[in-house]
Amino acid sequence: MRHQSILAVLAVLCGMAAHLPPARAQLDIFGTFANNLTPEDVAMMKETSASLYQDDDLALTTTKRWANAKSGNSGAVTLIKRYEYQGMQCRTIKHSITEKNQDHSSTLNFERCKTPSGEWMLR
């Protein structure tokens, strides 16, 4: 069950990059989302994480939170690292998601780099 939840969270987080329009094609392959995350949860996660990629002035460890009172799910995204790789600006972002009635959160780190065309691609 926990393994299935982590896979669902992974799919959601990968799909969140679709909020950044150029990355949409790369990430649509993950398909639909599972478990207890609602479309509203996903929209909140996308909106919350977008500024961590777009704002170059945010301090490391900046954390932004989201909560959906309707579904009972919540989470946070944290800017962990900003670096350059092969001439591209990159970010490490930590995503923590707590599903309704769970006493623990699932946490995943993602590294994405901005290509010359403006796409944020998983590294």
Please summarize what this structure is.
It contains three helices and five strands. The chain is of the alpha+beta class and 123 residues long.
Describe this structure in words.
By secondary structure, the chain is of the alpha+beta class. Helix 1 packs across helix 3. The chain starts with a helix and ends with a strand. Strand 1 and strand 2 (74-85) form a beta hairpin. It has helices at residues 2-16, 24-27, 39-54, and strands at residues 63-67, 74-85, 88-98, 106-114, 120-122.
Order of helices and strands: HHHEEEEE
* Overall morphology: elongated
> What's the number of helices?
3
Low-confidence stretches: 2-8, 15-34
State the main characteristics.
123 residues, alpha+beta, 3 helices, 33% strand, elongated
What's the structural blueprint in terms of helices and strands?
Elements: H1 2-16, H2 24-27, H3 39-54, E1 63-67, E2 74-85, E3 88-98, E4 106-114, E5 120-122
Antiparallel strand pairs: 1-2, 2-3, 3-4, 4-5
Helix pairs in contact: 1-3
